[in-house]
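Thread: quick sanity check before group meeting

JM: Hey all, I'm pulling together slides for Thursday and realized we never actually wrote out the predicted structure for the chain we discussed last week. Dropping the sequence here so it's in one place. If anyone has concerns about the input, flag it before I start.
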Amino acid sequence: MLQLFIQIRIIDIIDILLVAYLMYQVYLLIRGTVAFNIFVAVIGIWVLYIIVNNLKMKLLSSILGAIIGGGAIALIILFQQEIRRFMTYVGSRYFSNRSFSIQNLFNRSSSILEKVKIESIHKACLNLAESYTGALIVVARKSSLNPYAETGDLINANTSSRLLESIFLKNGPLHDGAAIIENNTIVSARCVLPFTNKTELPPLYGMRHRAGLGISEQTDAFVIIVSEERGEISVADHGQLITGLGQQELWHILKKTFG
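JM (edit): ok, ran it. Output follows.
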């Protein structure tokens, strides 16, 4: 009686599913960037090596084998930005929850965070869009934004629509850059943010949109962008950009995210 030469265990199915999920997350991380083309080329070389090796083509197999042998170091060099972004994303999503901080072990009341004043943010964004005043507002969640806040001017003032509108006045000294909000406080303004590496972003979106998208890729921050040229409101969240938001749409997103 013939026996199957392949034995599939439950742990094998789990292994395949985990690898598939990991590959999907890698795809989401690098899609639309130059790194995606490099990733496709690496997969192509690996598949070619398997074919050549099975066909017993010794010379070509040895050449491709040498390339793949040193591939780990090459991949780390080529994908250093994507690896850093992935580690930051994992750390901010799973290990940066403020409810598990050491301080909260001794002070239970500190685990109750103040809610973001979405009314003030919503009103400021509508007024800024109506006056065609550019703005870049970053609202912190679990990830620490201190490294980016320190690049600007510290404010540490309660969130209000009038203050946000004053920060982004066209001729004001703080308008060039981002304002960072944490809980009910505008922490700093004129902050420098990392740009996205995505190449698929339309050219009509300038540096504000690229900076807003970049910080949303590297942290879990929620970003609101107001276009100076079109008076258009956009939001960036987890590396995704939503453009052309109206009054009700922006309110619904803010309410769903922070309400």
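AS: nice. The beta strands are 135-139, 153-158, 178-182, 185-191, 222-226, 233-237, 240-245. The chain has eleven helices and seven strands.
JM: adding both to the slides.
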